[in-house]
Design brief:
By secondary structure, the chain is of the alpha+beta class. Helix content is 44%, strand content 25%. It contains 14 helices and 19 strands. The protein has helices at 7-30, 39-62, 101-106, 130-148, 176-185, 195-203, 211-237, 277-282, 312-322, 335-363, 379-388, 427-431, 444-447, 459-488, and strands at residues 65-68, 72-77, 83-88, 92-100, 108-115, 123-129, 168-173, 241-245, 248-253, 257-264, 268-275, 284-291, 307-311, 391-394, 398-403, 408-414, 420-424, 434-440, 452-458. The protein has a seven-stranded antiparallel sheet. Strands 13-12-11-16-15-14 form a six-stranded antiparallel sheet. Strand 8 (241-245) and strand 9 (248-253) form a beta hairpin. The radius of gyration is 28 Å and the shape is globular.
Amino acid sequence: MKLHPLSLPYRAVSRGVSVGSSLLFAGLALGGVVDFLEPLRVALLAVVGLAVAVAWETAYYRRFAYELTGDSLDIESGVLSRRRREIPLRRVQNVDIRRNVVQRALGLSSVSLETAGGEQTEASLRFVAYEEAKRLQREIQRRKRAEAAGEVDAGDESPSETVEAEPEEELYAIRSSELALLSAISVEPRVVGLAFVVVPLVTGESSGVDALVGLTQLALSALVLWVASAMVTFARYYDFRLTRVGDELRYERGLLQRYDGTVPLEKVQTVTLRENPLMRLAGYATLAVETAGYAPGQGGGGSQAAVPLAARERVLALAREVEPFREPTFERPPKRARRRYAGRYAIVVLGLTAVAYGVDRFVAGFGLWYAPLALLAVAPVAAHYRWKHLGYSTGDDHVVTRIGYWRRATTVVPYYRVQTVVQQATIFQRRWRLATVVVDTASSARLAGRDARAADLDAATAAQLREFVAGRLQDDLRERRAAEHVAEE
């Protein structure tokens, strides 16, 4: 099968404009240095670049073909050299569909296939009709289930007719009030760069601005950044829906860029509830579902929420739909860990005070270098709240860890998903007889450094937890192997 006919003009225009404009701007920038680059020649060079880009995309379209067989997705591509890929359906983990505003108007969609353990997209079809994208998404998952059930003949390219479409159950749809609240309380890191543009614009060049005007301008800067963050969050999670079809989750979200994706339940490694202080105050939380090397809606980095925002009880119920677990009872670190945090924060305050003194003494005297010392009164409070929100819990089938105050993460890990259990301690932890236990899985959280971890436990307790989780892992694996053996018989 071929890509959608409209994919050729869309890709040609996109690539041509990109190449042509880059050559144009580069030529104009170098025009004052290189005599050859006169404006007319620069324009001609941009036109040539545009033509080459269009020719390239035309060849790409003509030489691209794909075929969905009974057990693989075969793709032939290449302009200068031919490439044929056969992607086994059993390895396909996620099939994601993306459409921006222009693509939706043209009826085009980009289909991305992710494989188990892969950190990058295994294959991408850019672009096919939306109906074709949905068909591929459904058929790949359907044929995977049929193959796993032994209902597909190895020499047949079509799935067994006995495999019927399963009903779709809606698990979650974001409400208008939840979307508004999520937009208001979320902090979008990608808009932080606006601070370098907004702050100079509102502060101006004057150095004689009084304190009141300066504070007003900074407040205006903060307002602009907050509004920008809210707009990005609103566009990302607009019309978010999470459904369940058989043994997989499906999600849809996005205003300007629309995403449709799948999450196989059998590939789920961990589920994580995340809450910031405002969410906890209002009784809300988010839910992230991590699979092997990939997160739903990840799109190239970072975990996306499976449930962006809902009442905490509702999030817990949805989490148990994905991975059944009991309400955990957390064991906190020893109280000496709290004293360690207080001492660490006090050292930071003293360091800030020393820096302020150095600036006052040798750079510009402002007379209030000792003001940071007031934060010493806050250090014990901050240490207490950090200690309060740490802990771990062990159950019959799961280990649960909790860490963080500003963005508290409660992570549920099934024992049979554990890859390694590591006990680690820094030189400072060893002085306090403390250690951290890291429960590692094959999830994308590991790739981003967000493993489940029980932080600052008593060293002896950490050793016991490490041995317990490792032992339960072996017990669960033996039970599952025995169950599979009985099922085969």
